[in-house]
Amino acid sequence: MEELSNRVDEIASLTNHYLVRAKSTDHSYFTGFLQAGTVLKQALTPKEFTFWCAEKMLLKPQPFNEKTFIQYAVETTVVRYFGERFPTGFRVEAKINPANDKDVDCVFMDEGFTFNVEVKCSDFKAKEKVDSQDAFKYETAGRLPDRGQEAMAVVSAALDEGLAKRGEATKPHLTAKNMDNSLKDFLESAHEKFGPPVDEQHLNVLVVGCGDAEDLQRWFNYLWEHKGLFTPTPFTDRSLYQNVDLVVLTNQYDKHSRFFEKDVSNSWSLGEGFNLIFGNPYRHSLKEAAIKHFMNVLPNFTTELGAYQVPGGAPDYVKNIRRIPWFVHDHLEKQQGRYLFQNPS
């Protein structure tokens, strides 16, 4: 789209802007952006499109905010996917809960079903701050009673002792950032936007932009491991997210974040990414037909992941907290030659 290309040219001095960088290197990321923008142009009013360009794609003369851009790029990728396939009756930033003035990112319809879609994506700043440090880092799968402090203390002491015996300097011991509270906030925010149930033909979907296969495993654990949000004993009040029927975990954050440091493709295409779909066990009603239809609409690996057997003799509870990385690298990439994260080197 010439209009978008010209807008990028107008901010060419912002050389760290993702779109300026992509255009200047003739990267496929820029082509994908133009394709997404073409779909958005058709779905938005002229005023809304101008707002999207300036405030979401940050095509304006001010310092580039990488995290804000990535979050809105993830949102755009999701909206583009559904808007392109279901243009009839498609709505963006639609208000569907009469009890408040909040809106969901998009609404689409197909075969008598209505799907309300909200997109959330963390900025990962706190996690990246810990990850960037030269230290021993600890994380838990699920919420342990003491957040794992006792086990970490034992391991830390053993590591320090081993380094001391070799005459090496010790390193700090840090707890990796657990983002289950972020997912809780995403669910509760979506719950308010969706409002109470309408009928079995209306489905409320929360899409969460995640990182690589390791990061997707973490978000999976926030749902399903000990005290997880979809377990029988979640760490918070489950009634606060009953309006959410489905959660989609997608690797869209990874597809956008610092794309120029990876060999990545199809960043603006949700259907070409790695998607997992999970029903909220605490939703108001089953909505089986609507859920089945949505799972046919959005390409996903939920069923394949569930059937996949992690190799080795480790106990099942250990395998389950490593299932996604194994599935991606062993089943998809090694066995099938499918690369939905980074392309093979």
Written description of the protein model:
- This is DUF4263 domain-containing protein.
- This protein has 14 helices and eight strands.
- α3 packs across α5 (66-85) and α9 (213-224) crosses α14.
- By secondary structure, the chain is an alpha/beta fold.
- It has helices at 2-10, 18-24, 28-43, 46-56, 66-85, 125-131, 149-165, 180-194, 213-224, 252-256, 288-297, 302-307, 316-320, 323-335; strands spanning 91-94, 104-110, 113-121, 136-138, 173-175, 202-209, 246-250, 275-279.
- The relative contact order is 0.11.
- It is globular.
- The model has no long low-confidence stretch (mean pLDDT 93).
- The chain has a six-stranded mixed beta sheet with strand order 1-2-3-6-7-8, sandwiched between helices. A two-stranded parallel ribbon has the order 4-5.
- The protein is 44% helix and 13% strand.
Tags for this model:
44% helix, alpha/beta, six-stranded mixed beta sheet, two-stranded parallel sheet, 345 residues, DUF4263 domain-containing protein
